Amino acid sequence: MTATGAFATIILERVLDVLTVLVLLASSVFVFDRGVGTTNPTAFAAMKWAGATALGGSIVALLVMFVLAGDPGRIGRWMARLQKAVPSKLAGLIGGIAEKFSRGLGAVRRPGRLFVALVWSFPLWLTIAAGLWAVSVAFHIDVPFTGSFLLIAFLVIGVAVPTPGAIGGFHEAYRLGATMFFGAPDDAAVGAAIVAHLFSVGPVLLLGLFFAAQVGLNISGMRRLAEQADAQ
After folding, report:
1. Nearest residue to 154 via CA among 58, 62, 46, 56
2. pTM confidence score
3. Residues 6 or more apart from 162 whose CB is under 8 A from it?
4. CB of 99 within 8 A of CB of 73?
5. What is the mean pLDDT of the chain?
6. Percent of the chain with pLDDT strictly greater than 70
7. Residues of the chain with pLDDT > 90: what percent?
8. 174 neighbors 151 (Cβ within 8 angstroms)
9. Cβ distance 70 to 109 under 8 Å?
10. How far is CA 46 from CA 15, 27, 29, 146, in A?
11. What is the distance between the alpha carbons of residues 7 and 14, in angstroms, rounded to a whole number?
12. Of residues 29 and 39, which shows the higher confidence score?
């Protein structure tokens, strides 16, 4: 698989993640925790508007991916025709990248596999919700289990902030959600955010370092790979 094709699978995964998070958020808001909006009606209304907008964008993105995956060579042919009309190396370059990208969306061409991937997203995110809920309870924050779905929606926005390891964005997103909708004291919300982030990132880093070491990818090994890439 090319790097561009691998990048396409990451984009598809993120779209499925957003769809799953929005379904959980809707269940929390409209089915389980209808009283949450009374704490901060303005923020609650803004959250619902942002969720509806994100849901529409995700559906559009999934449809675009479906069209691209249906015929990976389509964009390449479009760019080839454009290149004949307007000679440009840029058109050929964009066409090649777009074609590789669409080939990386192989799962979209098979609706069954796409559905299975979406279904598996739910136990994954429910596990994340369970971790957030457990930490919140440990810090005596009155968050029901389904209320953690609302916190997850905030965290998805927070981790989008481009900081190393989501430091800062994760913590502020959790603090805002816990204080605005669940009346958590500020110091308890900050402490819970630090512990929740540690539990979410720590095991991944440790396991990543372990498996990297299994294939010889220590610091010196990664440096050698970088030098080989520069030499090429």
Report:
1. 46
2. 0.71
3. none
4. yes
5. 78
6. 72
7. 21
8. yes
9. yes
10. 21, 17, 13, 19
11. 11
12. 29
